[in-house]
Amino acid sequence: MIVIINWGHWVRLKISLSANGKEFKIPFNYNHVLSAIIYKKIADLELASQLHASQDYKFFTFSQINIPRRKPVRDGMLSRDGKISFLISSPNNQLIKSMVEGYLEDGQVNFMGQNLLVEQVELLKMPPIKKRMHMKTLSPLMARIQKEVDGKLRVWDLNPNDLKFYENLQNNLINKYIKLYGDYDGDTYVKIVPKLESIKRKRITIPKMDQETHHRCFLMQFEIEADKRLIEFGYDCGLGEKNSMGFGMVDIKREVNNE
Q1: What's the pTM?
Q2: DSSP-assigned letter for residue 138
Q3: How far from chain centre, in Å, is Cα 117?
Q4: How far apart are CA 37 and CA 178, in angstroms?
Q5: Phi, psi of 180, deg, nearest 5
Q6: Are 9 and 125 in contact (CB under 8 A)?
Q7: Which residue from 13, 2, 258 is spatially nearest to 126, judged by alpha carbons?
Q8: Which residues 6+ apart lie within 8 Å of 97 measured at CB?
Q9: Could you tell me if residue 256 is left (phi over 0), alpha (psi between -120 and 50 degrees) or otherwise beta?
């Protein structure tokens, strides 16, 4: 296992796992599996307990699993060489450090009963960010509202064809920023313009106790224009809702001409 450490403003980890050359299957719905792995790898047990128990923002997110050599099977994807990777991102340096310590202490991961070797842990630095950027999702975006249906308030998943989708992303981003840093004194304008042909709908199921929740969410490419601090923060902890369950992680495609 190789760990690259040089502390600065590091906000992301890339975790590379291996099944020692053996094929293994990843189910379509694995967010809860990665979430459990992440919590178990936080070396600071008090921090892990606080995050797990919190009903508030947790200020981290993670990507979908990358499977370089994949083969579709009936109920998931097969890693043909047993290699997978995923990213974790957070503005909380203490959390990132604690995760690195967790992987140093134990170089294995239990993925649904199968022990995987931690081949590599890489610390990734934030790329240069300007006030207008082209971005892409690494895990799907979720935005929701409460809506009255048959006289009862229900949680309703929004879609990118609804302006409320983008209002939700803006409000959520600013609220998270204020919650973490205590205040925000900049422009609250956040413009997000999707590349329509890039939008892909996903339906993700997350088991909880004896029930399942189903979430309608979206992968896409988009242009964002906002205060640089907000874009950096969205890059750090994710856009939209339920970031800590693997929603809303984004990456930079390129800078827009800001002249």
Answers
A1: 0.92
A2: S
A3: 22
A4: 28
A5: -80, -45
A6: yes
A7: 13
A8: 7
A9: beta
- SS3 state at 103: helix
Residue positions annotated with a catalytic role: 39, 52
Please answer whether residues 239 and 250 qualify as being in contact, where contact means their C-beta atoms are separated by less than 8 angstroms. Answer: yes
Integer Cα distance of 162 and 160 in angstroms:
5
* 227, containing H or E segment: none
Q: Which residues of the chain have pLDDT under 70?
A: 1-10, 255-259
The string of pLDDT tens digits covering residues 184-230 is 999 999 999 999 999 999 999 998 777 888 899 999 999 999 999 99
Q: How far apart are CA 104 and CA 116, in angstroms?
A: 15
Amino acid, single-letter form, for residue 208: K
Domains of the chain: 2-125 (3.30.70.1890), 132-255 (3.30.70.1900)
